[in-house]
Structure formats: C-alpha cells, structure tokens
Specification:
The protein has 11 helices and 14 strands. By secondary structure, the chain is an alpha/beta fold. The chain has 2 domains: 88 residues, DNA polymerase, domain 1; 308 residues, Aldolase class I (TIM Barrel, Alpha-Beta Barrel). Strands 3-4-5-6-9-10-11-12-13-14 form a 10-stranded mixed beta sheet, with helices on one face. It has a two-stranded parallel ribbon with strand order 1-2. Strand 13, helix 11 and strand 14 form a beta-alpha-beta unit. Helix 2 crosses helix 3 and helix 5 crosses helix 6. The structure holds S-adenosyl-L-homocysteine (SAH) and iron/sulfur cluster (SF4). The site of S-adenosyl-L-homocysteine has 18 residues, from strand 10 and strand 12.
Length: 400
Amino acid sequence: MLCPAVHTPADQLIRLDTNPPAVGSTAEMFGLDAAALAMCLTNLGEPGWRGRQLAEAIYRQRVTELDAITTLPKALRTLLKDKGWQVGRPRLARAFVSQDGTERYLVEGVAGPETFEAVWMPEGDDGEAGDGSDAGEPDTDRKSWDRATICVSSQVGCAVNCQFCLTAKLGLQRNLTVGEIAGQVVAVLHQQGVEVGKDRVNLVFMGMGEPFLNYDNWMAAVRLLVEEVGLSPQRMTVSTSGIVPGIERFAAEPAEVRPKLAISLNAPNDEVRSVVMPVNRKWPIDAVLDAVRAVRLRPRERVTFEYVLLGGVTDRPEHAAEVARLVRRAGFPAKVNLIVWNPGPGIAYSMPEPYAVEEFRRALGAEGVPVYLRRPRGRDIFAACGQLKRTVERGSGSGA
Ligand code: SAH
Ligand code: SF4
C-alpha cells in the first residue's frame, strides 16, 4: 500500500474510489493498516514499529486526536501534525434514539460533505442472529444489552434503483472510503462502550449503498475491522442485491477475512424480480445462484436470502412455494429472512397483511426451509431496512 505524501489527499493515493473526493490539504490515518502506517513513519525517518503503536491507538484505544497518542514522543506527534496528518475518524454528528433502543446516527465523513448513516441495534434483529447460533448467556455486567448489531453503510445513496427502497431515491452520491466504512463502526463501538473481544457485536453491511459496487473500499474496510480492530468476520454479514462480479470476487476472499453472505432475493422469480429490482435484468436469479455456489462456506455456515414482503406483489402463497423451490434448486445451505416492507414517502407499494406474513412464513417452514422473520427496528426514527435516506447534506438532519 502506498503512503500518502505530505499534503496530498490520502484518497488519491491509497483508496480506490470511483468518485475521488475534492482535493484537501490533510491526510487521514484512519483507513491505513499498521503496515501502511509504518511505511508513512519510515518515510519520515521514524522507526517502522511505531506504525503498530499508531494502529493500536486509533483502532483499539479509539483515539481521535494525534495529541492524545501518548505512546508517541511529543516531537513526533508535532511532526505528524505539521506534515498534515490527522487521525480522521468519521464523527457521529447526530443520534436519533428509538423507543425500542435502536440508535440511528448521522455520520460525518472525511471525503465529502454528505452525511451517511449507521444504526445500532441492541439485542440484534432476530434475523441475522435469529438462527440460534448467536444466542448467548446474558451478560452480567453493567450493559443494558447482551448482544447488538451495527448496520453499516458502504455508499452515500445507491445506484441500484430497487423500486421499494428509499435509499434508491438518492441515486448514488459517492462511494465511502475505507476509513469512512471502518470508521463509522469504530465510532459506534466507542459511543456504545463496546469492549471488542468481550461483547457480542455483529456487523451487517446493510445500510446505505451496495457494498459490492464499492468492493475495494468495502473489503479493505473489512480487513481493517478484522485485523486491526479485532472483530470476527464470522460475526459480519454483507448483503448484496446480486452484483455477480462482486459475488465472484467475494468467493475468492480467504476465510480469515470473509464475512457471511446475504442475497437480497425479494421476489420468487425473474419476472417479478425484474420489476421490483431492475438489476435482475442484468444479473438474473440463476446467474446470482451460480456465483454464490463458488463461495466455500464454512462448516454450518448458511447463505441468507433476504426477502422483502410487498403486499400483493411478493407475499402470495404461490410465491412462498416458488421461493421454497428456488432455495432447493440453489443447492447450498441457506435460510430465508423475511422482512416486512417498511413504507416510505413516494414509494407506491403496500405493507403485507399480518396474516399473509404468517402464512408465508408457515408455508416456507412446512417446505423444510429455515425461515426467520426480521423484526423491524427503529421504524419511528427511520432506521429500519430501506429507510436510510433522511439526510444527505452535512447538518441538514431533520430527525423523525
Ligand atoms: N444494497 C444491499 C444492502 C443494503 S439494503 C442490498 O440491497 O442487499 C439491505 C436490505 O434492506 C436488503 O435486503 C433490501 O432488500 C432491504 N430493503 C430495502 N428497502 C426496504 C424497505 N423499504 N423495507 C424493507 N426492507 C428493505
Ligand atoms: Fe441499493 Fe440495496 Fe436499496 Fe437496492 S435495496 S436500492 S441495492 S440499498
């Protein structure tokens, strides 16, 4: 990895954004791993082992100011600042707290003025952790939660244009950088006082954006979160709308850093899927399934099919029978997470009737398909799936 030169914006050199941010005069350390930090220090004539100290400080101790890195000599801190370096972790600018304990944050990035969103869900959402694998003993210490899930954004807005999704209405504003993707997670861990290695925290890359259309930055962020922050990839799930080249790259990632995979299926067949998810015309269901088959699953690992129930459109009993056939045809270990559609302004779908949801769930279960109903979280603060689009411009958050 290259080291950004003095007063050169880090993104130009070390990040692979398709939309590079405007030129600035500082460089951020957040987003660089220990080896890259070491290289920066050796370029300044400092010993490389101090790169590990820097990484410890920003990723483990969650320091946000160079001055607070007391393991570095004061003169070195001053030199780094003089050279234009800053920690550069994204900031949680505003928080909206739901009645159910969910917290939605507006995050201020470093590579552009747009805010993006991250969501903290204490107790999980019964979807990703609802298969029993994550059910743990209650924690006895002071925390009011015994496990939690952080929903992470990968882009500001999204280009994929799923017809039922609010984020789609934004279009793609820009890709998030490595430091912005990993940094929102570290900022939330810090905000919530999470002790990595002790507390049970899952990450779901299911916030704003399509992770597989920002693949390089997203995967570099995952590596940082695993290798520097200390989170387990087996507690991370990435969700894709079915970007086949991205799934193919994902399949080639080593198991030590590969999260679990979720596919937004959302329809029982190509005909309906092409209407609700126009991306299906480019990569139809069988192309997606073929790509997923190349992923070498760990023992007991399953691929998740997310399925948004749209009233009258995807929630009919015959759809459930088709989904069951599709899961069987897929041939890999899988489960289905049903998501009741969350309404949003300007989207002309309707919520499914409660009996239709129950019937759909029952029908899949009766066919032997492992099925979970994802509990909607933070609907009152627009934090639920597909509702992340409230604000784009810095400081314009309106709450809910
Ligand atoms: N872009 C990725 C990840 C973000 S969307 C993807 O599409 O997979 C995360 C999940 O929210 C997807 O499964 C998507 O189908 C679902 N979703 C989008 N809008 C929704 C809405 N209004 N109500 C419920 N789920 C929604
Ligand atoms: Fe993008 Fe996912 Fe929304 Fe589709 S559902 S528009 S891929 S964020």
